[in-house]
Amino acid sequence: MKEALSSLLDQVRACRICADKLPMGPRPVLQIGTNARLLIAGQAPGRKVHQTGVPFDDPSGENLRAWLGIDRAVFYDPEKTAILPMAFCYPGRGRSGDLPPSDECAPLWRERILSQLPNVKLTVIIGRYAQLYHLGSRGKATLTETVRGFHEYLPDVFPLPHPSPRNGPWLKRHPWFERDVIPALREAVSKAV
Ligand code: SF4
């Protein structure tokens, strides 16, 4: 029998499985509603999101919403948009940015939560970790090649780089992203929602 969504979310919110590795402690940040047609499969919350509890309420989120061509009302409506990072809690900071998402989170929770989202028409995959999980062997050797081959994964999946402002140099090196990928992304999102 399918789990009740509210009970599953209560379990996630009480989760402390990798608490010892989280410098600011557990605070799972995710958004889901069973009618959502767009799924944002991200990496892990950043420090600011850990503090507010609101996913992508930061400069990365502003970039992402601009790429998707949707406003905050659609983005933060759980019955339209589900937001599910690979790990739900802030992993802390390393030398060159945030640490990778906890590798304990996805095996424990991801399939159970995805099973609550039967209406998703488009999964937007952000970054390498979500790409590995959602595309597996369908992904290419690098994130850049996978993003460039986005048309191979349509109509149900769209791979993106991370929208962090730290990725500005990547965007400059790859002008085809804004020219070719963003218009196709907006079209795919508009069809899905
Ligand atoms: S990252 Fe995931 S597994 Fe770890 S404490 Fe948070 S919810 Fe639990």
Give the helices and strands, then pairings:
Blueprint: H1 5-13, E1 38-41, H2 47-52, H3 59-68, H4 72-75, E2 81-83, E3 93-94, E4 97-98, H5 105-114, E5 122-126, H6 127-135, H7 143-148, E6 157-160, H8 168-173, H9 176-192
Parallel strand pairs: 1-2, 1-5, 5-6
Antiparallel strand pairs: 3-4
The structure holds iron/sulfur cluster.
* Distinct small-molecule ligands in the complex: iron/sulfur cluster
Integer average pLDDT: 95
In CATH, the topology is named Uracil-DNA Glycosylase, subunit E
Order of strands across the main sheet: 2-1-5-6
Structural class: alpha/beta
Query: Can you tell me the overall shape?
Result: globular
Rounded Rg? 16 Å
CATH superfamily: Uracil-DNA glycosylase-like domain
Q: What's the end-to-end separation, in Å? A: 29 Å
SSE arrangement, N to C: HEHHHEEEHEHHEHH
Count of distinct structural domains: 1
The number of helical elements comes to 9
At CATH level 2, the architecture is 3-Layer(aba) Sandwich
User: What is the highest CATH level, the class?
Assistant: Alpha Beta
Please report the total strand number as a whole number: 6
Low-confidence stretches: none
Q: Biggest β-sheet, characterized?
A: 4 strands, parallel
Strand content: 5-15%
What do you see in this structure?
The protein has nine helices and six strands, in the order αβαααβββαβααβαα. The protein has 193 residues and is α/β, with parallel strands linked by helices. It has one domain: Uracil-DNA Glycosylase, subunit E. The strands form two sheets. It has a four-stranded parallel β-sheet, sandwiched between helices. A hairpin with a 2-residue loop joins strand 3 and strand 4 (97-98). It is globular. It starts with a helix and ends with a helix. Iron/sulfur cluster is lined by residues 12, 15-19, 26, 28, 87-89, 102, 104-105, 108.
